[in-house]
Here is the input.
Amino acid sequence: MTHSFNLNRRSMLALGGAALAAPLVACPALAATTLRYGHNNEVASVAGAQADWFADALGQTSGGDIEVQVFPNSQLGKLQELAEAVSLGTIAFSHNTAGALGSLYQPFAALDTPYLYRDIDHLMAVTDVESPVMQELNKGLIEAANVRVIYAHYFGRRNLTCNKAIMSPADLQGTKIRAVPFPIYTTAVEGMGAVAVPVDWSEVPTALATGVVQGQENPVNVVLNVKLYEVQSHLMLTGHMSNAEVVVMNEDVWQGLSAAEQDAVREAASQTREKATKAILDNEAGETQQLRDLGMTVIGEEDGLDIAGFRDGVSKLVDARFGAEYGDLYAKIAAVG
Here is the structure.
């Protein structure tokens, strides 16, 4: 999505305001403001549950003045459609990968670069809304797409699953692996040695079951909760990408809130970021063991997994495709303490 496309779509929204604004905010006298939150995850996953946690927290921090209605499982659209819906204001909130938000403001995709962060603490420092990197990116996102980041929580380390053992990039040659349908993700999969097949998340279980793709990559929490162990035999702990899930809000809705209501959103966001991050960190090791217990063969570096080979292949392709564009931003990310 280009800047001009966003402006045109937003202009259309302004011209047809009453028709599209009605489903977003209902403000009957003396009643709560109702805002819609759409996302693509299952409620059982932490990414899905945290939307409900945020809704509950905002109800409390706003003293009941703001009600959030959550629509999970791509009920309101696929990843790209959800990003656009927040930009247009047809929904107030959604969450997405940074790579997907790059479709609204391209530099955002840099946050999902493989092997970018020193550790989880570094990732969380960079993606804090108060960090200099996030403030710069947020300003650009607001100007380009009318979308504001309100928080980002730890989503997990992305690992590879497949129906065969993968020990090195050579083992992936000719293998079709599902990629999140955005450039930084297809680059990661290709850099690992595979054939990247862009597939929206809502279509992944079917694509795996029918053989359209032979594997995919996601955090263990997702692999477990979506029961991918039923269609995938092997889990490779490549840890090729550490992700924060980014929760965004329509800027016009934000500006329409009172100062007290904005503070309520900030407090609910802070509470939810902490709770969701802790939940995923606390569960990662246990969920990996659960996948073993459910029959998946789990392969780590101690089993001969060539992490250095994957890192080298991915890093070379990332540098070739994005180094010139994101080099300055990568330096700013590295400088975050």
